[in-house]
Each structure stands twice: as C-alpha cells, then as structure tokens.
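User: What would this chain look like folded?
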Amino acid sequence: MSKPSLAFVVPKELRGERLDRVLEKLVTDHSRSQLQKLVRRGGIQMNGNPIRRSNVRVQGGERLTIAGVEAPKAANPQAERERAAAELPILFEDEHLVVVNKPPGMLTHDAPGSLDDSLSALLVERYGALPTHRGEDRPGIVHRLDRETSGVIVAARDARTMDALADQFRAREVEKLYLALVHGVPSEQEFDVDFRLQPQRGRGDREQVAEEGEGKPATTDFRLEEAFGLVSLVTCRPRTGRRHQIRVHLAEAGHPVLFDKLYRRADRAVLPDGAPLLRRHALHASELAFVHPGTGERVSFRAPLPFDFDTLLAWLRERSGD
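Assistant: Here's the prediction, encoded as structure tokens.
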C-alpha cells in the first residue's frame, strides 16, 4: 500500500512567504517543527522536485506534495462559516450599517484563488443580502483594508447607505487614523509625505512612487508617538485612500512598517532576541469617523489593538523602561 500524501497549490496571496510558514498555514494539524523535519528528510516536493530547505520563498502557484500526510477530514463548511460570522467582532450595528474590528489575516472581500471566507462573505452570512451595485464580488463593502491590516471598517446594509458613505470617502470627509510600528525613529515629531502612487510595472500586487506626470495624488500625515530605540510607534492620517498608501509612504520616508513583506528595506532594524514577533505587518486601523447616513450625526468608532500588535507594543514599552 502506498503512503498517504497531501497535495495542494500555493495560493497567490502567499507570494513571498517562507515555505515553512506556508506549510504551517495550510497543514494545520502539524507543528512547524514537524513540517521542517519533513522538508529536511525530502518528504516535500515542489512542482515534482524534492525540496530540502524550509526557508525558500514561494511565488504562489507552486504545486506542493507532502508524503506521509493525509488530507484532513472534511469539515462542514457551512457550519464553519456560520460560526465565524457569529464571532465577528462587531463594534456597532443598526439597520443601515455595521462597523467591524477586522481581524488580521482576513480578506475584506473575496479574491481569486482564496479559499478563506472574506469579511463581506461573513457579513452576508450574518445579515443576509447586502448591496452589490458597487461590485458583485464585494457585497456591502465601501472601503477596504489590506488582508494583514487589522482594525475598524464600515460596511453598508442598504444601497442608499452605501452610496452616501462612498460619497463621503470620495470627498475625503471620512477621518481615518492608523497605528503603525516602524523601523527607526523619525527626525521630526510630525511630518507628512506627499508622493503620487502608481502600480509597479510587472508587479500588480505592489504600488510605487509615480514617475513625473503619472499616478494618483496621495498624502499622509504622520506623528511620532513613542520611540523604542530602533523602533517607533507612529500615528498615520491618510488624506487620500490609495492602495498600500501608508506602507509605501512610510517606506519612502525611511521608516517601513515592521514585518512588511512587500515594502521592507534591506537595512531595516532587527528586534532584539526575545521580542514577540508578528506574522503580518504591524499596521492597525484604529479609528474611523464619518456622518451616519441614517441619522445625519457624525459618529466615531475605535478598534482596540489585536493581541499580536498589543503584545509587541507592551513588550517594547516594558523594555524601554528598563
């Protein structure tokens, strides 16, 4: 009898991840050390070839075969979706809209190649049909957060609310505040970055500072809140809403976001041994303020820090006080 094996294709959104981290995400019933041993023993093939180093970076789309590992027993997808929808961290809800503290690692809306339930899919599961006239694949979604970014996000429950919120975002009447842990210490307490942005040629998953006469306007205001030696906590107020705007602007200012796999620099600071590391970039959408389309009142919502960000920040504060 042949040994059991598990085969899958690496999702495109995991591009740039180390092989051991990819395996840990996709083979959840084995520890990272167990998977690393499998790699060293030649038990894992990539595109048909044995691979013995767990620190190689994937590009997305590779076919991985793992010998000696059986596929996990099929779960009940609908039951899992219902559970996840019921556990969404809701900050506010009424008949017009819902405000959520999006967990890190969750897509805002469905994306090609992803098998995970997105925030929009879970909102539909929880609240029923949501407006889709701004995109069939993004019910209820007015704005988005990157998959790894945690924090406050608002979704519309009816078409009128969706249009009214979209108008506020377009007119730059929505106030957004983010918290970021960054490399280095800015030389000024307050500074702004005003660089037009455009997609990187040949890299559709990244943005870059636009060449002269190209791209779209993008401006972000920053403030240094706390410094911890080689790392700082900054608040970020984007005046515009371009993709990856805060991350690109901070990288261009010489202070890339900690653990940012797309925009980090080769000369980035390294956290001391013993620091609790994040498995995603250290960016959190902390506050969101807008005019409620149903009541006409200006409302503001704050999302508490998730456990990983809060743990690292507390560690940095404790260490800086030594």
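The two ends are 60 Å apart (CA to CA). If you want, I can go into more detail on any region.
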